[in-house]
């Protein structure tokens, strides 16, 4: 157990369980809404949004962002490509990799889905963590993520 600055013990196992269960329930609720309105799931939305916001990304960039294996990421991109939302383009600086780009249909989809995603997330979180509590949670999780990413903790090996 860790201690807070006030000396109260934190149940790290309970914190972990709460964090993971919240993430799972939020992800599932977002999946349901995105599937219902746009025919995609949260992982597809996140990949499309990343590619929109980071033009010229490679499969390896997506894998690093989401801390998943390159093989699984490549298969996910294959599915997005099959739907006509993403294209692979030759990488002029490295012939072994491709650059990923959204198609017009992919761009329209992610832009439409972003409104749904944001609206649903606000419905799920807004009343519970409004104001200072949300700022504290957001800052704490951002700091934790930064440390984990800086130290390359939890990155897949393949």
Give a brief outline of the structure.
Helix content is 64%, strand content 9%. By secondary structure, the chain is mostly helical.
Q: Please give the largest β-sheet.
A: 2 strands, antiparallel
Provide the CATH superfamily of the domain at 43-123: Winged helix-like DNA-binding domain superfamily/Winged helix DNA-binding domain
Oligomeric state of this protein: single chain
Shape, per Cα inertia axes:
globular
- Poorly predicted residue ranges: none
Taking all Cα atoms into account, the compactness measure Rg is: 18 Å
Strand content: 5-15%
CATH class of the domain at 43-123: Mainly Alpha
Count of extended strands: 4
CATH fold description of the domain at 43-123 = Arc Repressor Mutant, subunit A
- The CATH architecture name of the domain at 43-123 reads Orthogonal Bundle
Q: Mean pLDDT, nearest integer?
A: 89
Structural class: mainly alpha
Which strands sit side by side, in order, in the main sheet? 1-2
Supply the number of helical segments: 6
Helix content: 55-70%
Q: SSE order, as H and E?
A: EEHHHHEEHH
The CA-CA distance between the termini, in Å, is: 32 Å
């Amino acid at each position: 157990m860790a201690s807070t600055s006030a000396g109260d013990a934190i149940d790290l196992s309970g914190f972990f369980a709460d964090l993971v269960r919240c993430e799972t329930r939020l992800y599932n609720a977002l999946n349901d809404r995105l599937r219902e309105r746009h025919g995609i799931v949260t992982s597809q939305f996140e990949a499309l949004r990343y590619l929109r916001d980071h033009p010229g990304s490679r499969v390896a960039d997506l894998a690093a962002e989401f801390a998943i294996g390159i093989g699984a990421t490549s298969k996910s991109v294959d599915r997005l490509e099959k739907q006509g939302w993403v294209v692979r383009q030759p990488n002029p600086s490295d012939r072994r990799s491709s650059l990923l780009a959204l198609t017009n249909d992919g761009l329209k989809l992610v832009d439409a889905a972003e409104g749904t995603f944001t609206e649903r997330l606000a419905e799920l979180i807004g009343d519970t963590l409004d104001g200072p509590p949300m700022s504290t949670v957001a800052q704490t999780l951002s700091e934790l993520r930064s440390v984990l990413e800086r130290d390359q903790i939890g990155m897949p090996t393949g």
